[in-house]
Each structure stands twice: as structure tokens, then as C-alpha cells.
Amino acid sequence: MGENNVAIGLSSQAKRAQHDKKNCEIEHFQVWSKSQDGSISEMEELPVPQNIKISNITCDSFKICWDMEPRSKERITHYFIDLNKKENKNSNKFKHKDVPTKLVAKAVPLPMTVRGHWFLSPRTEYTVAVQTWSEIIEFCTADYSTVHLNQLLEKAEVIAGRMLRFSVFYRNQNKEYFDHAREVQGNRMLPSVKDNSGSHGSPISGKLEGIFFSCNTEFNTGKPPQDSPYGRHRFEIRADALFNPDTNLYFGDFYCMYTAYHYVILVLAPKGSRGDEFCKQRLPALDISNNRFLTCKQNEEGDGGLVFHHAQDVILEVIYTDGHQLMSLSTVNAKKDPSCKTCNISVGR
């Protein structure tokens, strides 16, 4: 007989089996040998990939490898890789489920990088299986990298608008919040971790700690607005107490919430603090005297004082951190509008 050609296919007569404790019927993958005269010889089931490993996970790619029996490697020309979003237990049972995506990959040397075959989203849990019969491995994609954040930064700079002068940072809350801070917390506003509002891939959500402050002013008065969605009671602090040459400034996020208003999150971190070290590894740094959002400059009159300006056309949320942070009440876990063309970048969507 001549030299055999090897391929992978599905046997129409393969037995049905239950998979993953569900009534999901899947046909066996099998190998057949086809000789030069066109006849088909003995058929046998393909071996199952073992020890699947996921590595080098980013917000839109990952590397995958697995072990195979040495004798089977020569017979296999392609692998079937099945990727699915991990099912949310709280999801609407009547909502249309994501259609499973299968990739037919050539039997290339492992590990192989998966990028572009699926529209992977940041901070999203997935399951992946090889040849359907392999074990299912769970993994979660990573946060935005500084490359992605710089893309958001560039988009935010486009709409930031003219710079307006200001002199105080302020924080609005309800009366109960400040009463609790005085009576129970030793007259202190205690920190908490940032919520999951904003961009889904933001590296500061659920991780960075500090205190949220505002600095936007009314165009006609130059003072903070009288009303605030955060509460009727306000704490004010001089701008130079939080923002000065001993402070580093970072760009954190740019988003909207199905409205015409766009938010920019900035982080003020005292140099050398724990928050500063966190931001250095994850966020784009801004020049405190020359950026489109929030600036601190020496007074040109030469009196040694500092002059502060903020962007007019975006709502600034400023996190002051020495390793601590409070959540802003009006945007707790608010989801970013993924359809907005102004504040979204092309990552898996």
C-alpha cells in the first residue's frame, strides 16, 4: 500500500455521550487513514489532550498549550478549540446565550497564542476546551494595559475643553455620612476600595484605595456648583493641600454612562506612597503643570503660591491616595456605555 494521508473528522456512527453533566450530545472525534487508492482503513478515536495550561493572559489574548501522547502527535493535523464566556449564575435565564465559538487550529508547535480569532473582552471569565473532549479550563482576561489606557487618554484629551481656574477640592455626601465620620470614625473619612464603575478593563477598579474628590466649578461663578448628586453636605479643602509638586498625577479612566456627560478619573498620589507605587506600574503619568485635565503651576506673580486649573468640558473625579480611597456614591458600580464612540477603544468589542 502507498503512503497514508491522515486527517481529522467526525464519525456519523459514533456513540452519543453526556458532557459536563448536561444533556449535551457530542459526536466522537476519530481518525481515519486514506490510502492512495481511495480506500479507508481502520478508524480509531483520537486521544484526548491532557494538562491544558493557559498563560500570558492579556485583556484580549492568551497562550494555550497541552500535552498529547507522543505517538498521536504525528497523526493529528488540526485541533478544535472551543471558547465560551463563563456562565453567570445571576444571568437572565431567558436572555439569548452567547453562541459558542470554535476555532480550527493547525497542529502547530505549542504554546500557541490566541488573538483575533475571538473578540475577547477585558476582565471577563471564559472556559476553553480542546477537541471538545478535553477538560475545561477556566481563566479571566486581564485589565487594560498602559497602551490601552493611552488610547483612552488621547480620546479624553480631544473633548477636555478649555481650562478653568479653581482653588478647592470638595466632597459632597449626605448628613449621615459626615455624622458617622465625626462620631464613630474619630472625625475621619475612612478609605474604601474603588467600585467597578467606568471602563470594564480599568486596572484601578476594585483595587485602588483613596478618597474621591471633585474640583469642577461653575463657568459663571468660578465656584463649586451649589447642587451635587452625591449629597447636600460638603467638605472643602484647599487645593494645595492635595495637589502640589510633591504629588504625582495619573490618568485613570475615561467613560460615560449613557448620557452626554463624560467622566475622567485622575489619581493624585503623594510621591513614594503605596498608591504612587501602584499607579506607576499601571497608569499613564501626567505632567502636573502641562496636561489637558488638571494642572498645578507656580503663580506668575512670583509670590511662591500655586495656581490650579481644571478642564471645563469633562466631569473630573479625583482620587487622592496614600493607599486609601472612598467610593463615589452617585456612580457606585455604574456600567460604562459600551456603544459610545467617544470614550471606547477597540478591544474585543
From TrEMBL:
Pfam families: fn3, PHYHIP_C. PROSITE patterns: FN3 (PS50853). Signal peptide: none annotated. It comes from Lates calcarifer. Residues 48-155 form the Fibronectin type-III domain. Belongs to the PHYHIP family. One of its GO terms (cellular component) is cytoplasm. May play a role in the development of the central system. This is Phytanoyl-CoA 2-hydroxylase interacting protein-like a.
